[in-house]
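Below is how a single chain appears once it has passed through the pipeline. First comes the sequence as given, then the structure the pipeline wrote out for it. We keep one example in the README because the format questions we get most often are answered faster by looking than by reading.
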Amino acid sequence: MISNSFRDRNIEPLKPREIEIAIARELDMTIAEIADWLGLAPSTVRNYMNSARQKCGVKRTEAVYFLAREVYGMISDQDIEDVINSLRDGGFLS
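Resulting structure:
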């Protein structure tokens, strides 16, 4: 169980690109795959993930999605649906 003090932490919201990348990582996409999908350099994808980790106060990328969605409510069902549709449209998901 997550304590209320952690849940009430005031953190900076994730940018839309950080949300997209967090969802893609949760879908087990690699940095290279995400970069290809978004038309970004892998280093830019890493920079977005570093920023998201810092905002969520975690060291592990895997924790960003959980915290942003389940604890802070920053990732909506619509966000997930939009990313999945974009990945399908781009041929990255079947």
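The radius of gyration is 13 Å.

See the next section for the split statistics.
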